[in-house]
Design goal:
By secondary structure, the chain is α+β, with helices and mostly antiparallel strands. It has one helix and two strands; from the N terminus they run ββα. The protein is 14% helix and 23% strand. InterPro entries: GroES-like_sf (IPR011032).
Amino acid sequence: MKAVSFNGMSDSKRFTTAIQESTEAIVRITAAAICGSDLHFYLGTTSGVRKCSQKP
């Protein structure tokens, strides 16, 4: 399964992973889009957003 992670301003990673938990599922995506407002987070142009120091 392919995945993308957002790691910070202009930093995203595409990787391949496998199901690790019995509660996970693979879904087929046939179309996707990104909203223009999402690009503000990617480019770092959103004011008042700080990097979280806590790990999930």
